Amino acid sequence: MARRGRRSGKVATLLLVVLVIVVLVAWMVTFQVEFTEHVLVQTFGKTTRVLGGQADAGLYFKWPFVQRIVRYDARVFILEDTMNELQTNDEQNITLTTFCTWRIADPVKFQTSIRTVAEAREGIRGKLRSAKSDVIGQRKMEELVNTDPKGMRIVEIEKAILEQIAQESKEDYGVEVVQVGIKTLGLPESVSDKVIQAMKDERQKEAGRYKTAGEAQAMAITERAKEAGEQILAFANRKASEIRAQGDQAAADEYKKYGKDWQLAAFLRSLESLKKELQGRTIFLLDGSVVPAAGYFRKGPSLPTGTMPSLPPAGKPTTTRPAKPASK
Question: What does the DSSP 8-state code read for residue 45?
Answer without folding.
Answer: T
